Amino acid sequence: MKINQAEELAGITKKNIRFYEEQGLIRPGRDPGNGYREYTLSDVEQLKRVKLLRSLDVPCDKIREMTEGKLSLKKCMEDQEIFLKHRQDDMKRMQDMCAEISSGASGFNELKTDVYFETMKKFEEGGAQFMNANRTDVSRSRRGAIIAAAVFLAIMAAYVIIILWGNSQDPLPVPVLIVILLIPAAVAAGVIIALRQRMKEIKGGELDDARKY
User: Fold this and answer.
1) CB 146 within 8 A of CB 196
2) DSSP string of 91-137?
3) Which of 15, 22, 97, 131 is the one with CA 20 to 30 A from 209?
4) How does residue 142 score in pLDDT terms, banded at 50, 70 and 90?
5) Rg for the chain (alpha carbons), in Å?
6) For residue 73, is pLDDT > 90?
7) Of 5, 23, 1, 25, residue with least CA distance to 14
8) Is pLDDT above 50 for 210?
9) Which residues of 149-184 are buried (b: 16+ CB within 10 A; e: fewer)?
C-alpha cells in the first residue's frame, strides 16, 4: 500500500511516518518498478506501536532500541514509569511555587526572582526539571517572522496588481513595465531568502521539533 493508505490506517500523518523512517523505527520495502515505498499491514501495526509509545512520551531512541532487540518492552516501561513519576513531582513543585508566589507577591514588580531562581536551582541539582523558556519562545519567534514576511509579500502582490491595472488603463512601454515589475519581484525574493535564513537561525537555537512527533 502507499503512504496515504498507511496514514489512514495507522492514524499518523505522512510527515510523522517519514520521520519515523528516518529514525529507523520503520523500514518499508520499495516497489522495484518505480522505487516508491510500499507499506504492509505489518508496517501499519509497527506504526501503531510507535504511535502508542510516543503518546506515552517514550523517546524515539528507546523505541529504536526495542525494535533492534537491545531493550525489552518491560524495562522500557519501567524506566518510563519512573521518568513520568519524576516529571509529576516536578509539576507538583512548580504548582507549589506558583501558590507561594501568589500568596507572597502583591504585584508583578514586587516579584523577587532571585529567591525563586535559587530555589529552582536547588531542585534542579536534585534532578528536577523546570520548563525551558528558550525552547517555548522559539515557536513564537518563528510564527512572528512568518507573519511579518507574509504581510510584506501581500503588500508587494497588491503593488503589482495596482501596476498591472494602471497599465491596462494607460499602457507603458514594455521595457519600462518590466523594470517596474522587477523591483517588487526582487524585493519579494529578498524577503523569502531572509525568511529562510531566519528560520535556520531560529532552528539552530532550539531542540529538534521532530522529537514531539
Assistant:
1) no
2) HHHHHHHHHHHHHH-SSGGG--HHHHHHHHHHHHHTT-----HHHHH
3) 97
4) low
5) 26
6) yes
7) 5
8) no
9) beebbeebeebbeebeeeeeeeeeeeeeeeebeeeb
Count of CA atoms in the C-beta half-sphere (13 A) of 95: 6
- pLDDT score, position 202: 56
Per the model's pLDDT, the better-predicted residue between 171 and 201 turns out to be 171
Q: How far is CA 29 from CA 2, 49, 90, 107, 203, in A?
A: 11, 19, 43, 61, 32
Cell 534542579 sits on residue? 124
Please calculate the CA angle 96-101-104 and round it to the nearest 5 degrees.
120
Q: CA dist 202 to 19, 75, 148, 175, Å?
A: 20, 36, 15, 41
Q: Considering the entire predicted model, what is its pTM?
A: 0.54
pLDDT at 72 over 80: yes
State how far Cα 57 lies from the chain centre. 15
Q: Burial code of 189-208, b = ≥16 C-beta within 10 A, e = fewer? A: eebeeebeebeeebeeebee
| Cell numbers standing for residue 120 | 529552582
CATH number of 3-67: 1.10.1660.10
* Helices H / strands E in the chain, number of each: 8, 2
C-alpha 147, offset from chain centre: 17
